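An example makes the point: we let one protein speak, the chain in one-letter code, the fold tokenised, and here it is:
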Amino acid sequence: MNTDDGGHHDAAVDALAAREYGRAGDRYTRGGRRVLADPRPELDPFEPDDKGWIGQGLQQLLAATVAYRVAGVDERAGRRAAEGIAAARDFESVLSAPGQAACLGEFVADFRVAGGLGGADGAYDDAAERYAAAGGEIDTPQALATTPLFEAAAATIKQVARGQADGEIAIKWEDLHGSDPSRPGEFLAHRARFKKQRFAGLIERAVDDGHLAAPRGTTEYDNDNHRCPDCGSNHVNWAGTGILCLRCSRPTERL
């Protein structure tokens, strides 16, 4: 994380490792609200920001929504999704750089999926149309897609997908984006179209499995000093405040 969230993101990841998804949702919520209030020193969240640091706050609210769903706390998930939608819509009046409003629309659709609120397909279609319309104003879509706002909007679907892929990278850059950056609008609109096809199914699978993976941090394969007591893997993931199993997100044991 590049914002000061008071340590709540790491605490949420620790809760995921302990399979305490309700607690994870609570800590993601607290982190998200803190980032939305004060993203970074000297950065007013109600002023234009071409990086879009508040995206990391929205991402934590989105992760909270998914964590509550996995915990079976659907009412709280719905409320957190509604909170995220309201925040994303409000920031549309602030983040005015080309493509940013479309990305906020992408977040709105994500919150609708994660909270089970309905209307997600239409929201994704709207975000794709807005990307296409903004294409003429965007010179380098690859650079835009690596700003904090856009990376935050990609983070949760990647995290959820890890749970069905033994912790590996299940969704890559080329999955989320179009193949031709010379057509910026279509390059970015692919994000919304891909999520429309995949995000709901991934969340339903996570809910059915009762498992939300930790996000992928720094990783190492075949680490001789750590082993997972749950699945036996020695592939590790530095995430949260400890060292987790890359495959199943349980805390590892030091050998």
